[in-house]
Protein 1
Amino acid sequence: MHLYLRRFCLSMVLTLFSQAYLLAESLPNVVIIFADDLGYADIGAFGAKGYQTPHLDRLAAEGRKFTNFYVSQAVCSASRSSLLTGCYNVRISILGALGPSSNQGIHQNEMTIAELLKQKNYATAIFGKWHLGHHHQFLPRQHGFDEYYGLPYSNDMWPHHPEKMKFPPLPMYFNNEIIDEDVDAIDQTRLTSAYTTHALDFIDRHHHAPFFVYLAHSMPHVPLFVSESFQGKSQAGLFGDVISEIDWSVGQVMAKLKEHNLEENTLVIFTSDNGPWLSYGNHAGSAFPLREGKGTAWEGG
């Protein structure tokens, strides 16, 4: 099988963008909701068990499902570099998962979706996990995003890593500034809801003109955290609770678009950076009926 991923999401957005533009009186808004380590079978429309994902199921039923789809590499930073630039990650030298000790990141000469859309005067924002370099020159504000709120890399890259890896405190950014130097477990329970709140506020402030929202959830990457509102509510343990909250987030975004009469003029794309991290057992999802998961070149990865 071949996916021809050379221009991956950039190409998909441009194709859908051109079709929507022909049908709409104004430029379409773009919302990309990106989960972390979500498996193929982790939402209801693809076979999830023990919890419901009604908002994602509605997207699948009323929109278009992509069932033959590969990312450029089955790991965080590499996959995200392709999502945002449309290039194979190896061409732009982003491999694996960049960490706090890395001096590497996305190069200033690479054009992101945000920079492309800025040429059409879009308001642009990312809320969530960036993972394309944490030094100043690599952060989202230097790559086409007007606003940024989130973590610079994965939520397990903190001093509490279960394998006792020596990571520094995990920072939370707002634009180019660190607003919380040490994200703790309580903060992590609020990540999904906080990212969502920022996204909704951005849509409120920019609904009168074209906007691009990149909502990149930290979950369900381990360690799993969920807000009190969803804790213990599913039949699939903590993992099910986490996915239920992500589905809630999708529902909140869709309701906000409807509130501003933008449902018919917004491209909403939901996907994941790679497959499930299967070595974490019941804290990981499922790629069924596909083989293997994160970090492998099998379909499930």
Protein 2
Amino acid sequence: MKLHLSVALAAILIAGTVSAQSVNVGIKGGLNVYNINNDNGVSNYDTKPGFNLGVLGHIHLARQIALQPEVVFSTQGAKFKNQQGVDTKINLNYVNVPVLVQYMFDNGFRLQAGPQVGFLASAKRKTGSVEVNTKDNYKSIDFGLSAGVGYVHPPTGFGVDARYNLGLSDINDNNPTNITSTNRGVQLGVFYLFNHKN
């Protein structure tokens, strides 16, 4: 219920600004390369590829400053080999809501950074061909920071984006080992802004 309400509010935030003079909406998608960092220094995982897909709002606050809220479905997690040497994947699916502040250069390049809230949609662990639902082992909300660079081709509204997402909160729940785990990942993608305004 919290997930549905939060996503709905974020979508309303983006949609509600469409009529403003200096606002664009757009779509985006791309590649994820994520991992889970554990603070015990022993449980080291390998990165796991995934994807992201979502919508964005691009709000011009000044000539070179913009605010960009997004609602993005993101497949995350990590992978490792268990004690028997069998490949195991931790598949965590989130609906992420970053709110980025952007500095826009005149040539189309952008620097961007801001907070991100992630809402856990599903969590499963797959060992070999056996898949187990593990959503109860993870917290429903993840807090983090996002930072990166982007480029938009002004005449067309098409662009590319690269960012690093750093989890700040422990994602574990019902955790008897007291290990703190955080999400970390790189996102590469493309986007399109409808009726792009320079």
Protein 3
Amino acid sequence: MKSLLVVLTMFLTTHSFSQSPEDSVKQTINKLFDGMRSSDTALLRSAFAPGSILQTVVKNKEAKVFIRTEPLDSFIAFIARPHKEIYDERISFEMIRIDGELATAWTPYQFYVDEKFSHCGVNSFQLVKLNGKWKIQYLVDTRRKQNCE
């Protein structure tokens, strides 16, 4: 009986502390948004790989589609600027795929400034596993104010 209890305890302990690869990817992505909400630029930066790329698919006034690229340092500087509001991007993990050291995640979101809705869209993440940790290498998103159910 004691040996069964020991084995059961070891099983539960091992499984409660081990993370699936998908959970590890989610944890990295959540660092980004936790850093945004708390204006913690060190946490925010820790989610990204060196040389990462941030882009947004946008339409101009003539409805022409183009891609806007923002340097990571500019994004972090924006978050670091003093502000009273909380930037709160609420995501759901719709899809995560992993192959070795490459992962992709599709995360629909709604963005709030404090509790006021701002816009919605989808994030597409490409992550790489560097030194045993997932890092965001590429992030492209869409942004819109309509059809945000």
Protein 4
Amino acid sequence: MRHQKLLAVAMVWLGVSAAVAQQTPARPKAAPPKASTATPFDKAALEDYVRHLFVWGSQIQVTVHDPKPSEELPGFREVVVSARAGQASQEDTFYVSQDGRRIFRGTVYDLSKSPFAADAAKLKTEQDASFGPPNAPVELVVFSDFQCGYCKEEATILRKNVASTFPDTVRVTFKDFPLEPIHPWAKPASIAGRCVLRQKANLFWEYHDWIFENQGVITTENLKDKFFEWSKGKALEPIQLAACYDNKATETEVARNQAEGRALAINSTPTMFVNARRLVGGVPWQQLKAIIDHEIEYKKAHPSADKCCEVTLPTPLNK
């Protein structure tokens, strides 16, 4: 009898518990914690490693920029490291593995693009002095410094050989890149050259040749006098020329070229680009000629190399 009563009580209790359970909404299960997608990256460790790699002492200011996903190398992060000491600067790109332990430094190429596409996109020549046909298959851009001895040698090579050897196939463009920390009159000379270019573009190359020929006798103190002495008898308006030089009216144009050079990571002169192919330092004529010949033949064999991935309608107007 007692066992029957206990069984009845238990059945009543279970029934009440079930009713309560039906009336009380079930609590949602807690979501499992999300795994962190962040990967380790230690700026201080990378800076220390790069300083040791390049022997950069404490006198050199190093900045490790924030990493970003690499478009060229999916799965890697791209980190720019900048270094500066006075007016000198250098910038390098490192690719960092996802675990943050491995880095490499180099150039990534895309077979669907020119190997020089990145530099080509940064070269702007519309506002600079040039000689040669505008639509030449080879464009040679030279970043130069009027006080640089190696620039004088390269300028002589270019002026003596390019127009006579490649009259219809090469266009040469001059870019001002005065190295101010070591060449005190190079920037004023670039400003003067730009003043000539503003008035009479065809006289710029005469100025260019003259100042390189007289590089050994020009000083910071006598540059202005020698410049105006040279300008006498030229088709230049003297008052306008003097105002341009004295007011540094073309300084922003020189600075624009300098900024373009820094964006291209140029740190020495001369630096040339032959169809955006970078050539650092003086290049003997036979070597330069061989590179130009190669570019001409390459353009003949790849006439659509500069027009990749374009779809046009079949019309006689599309040539």
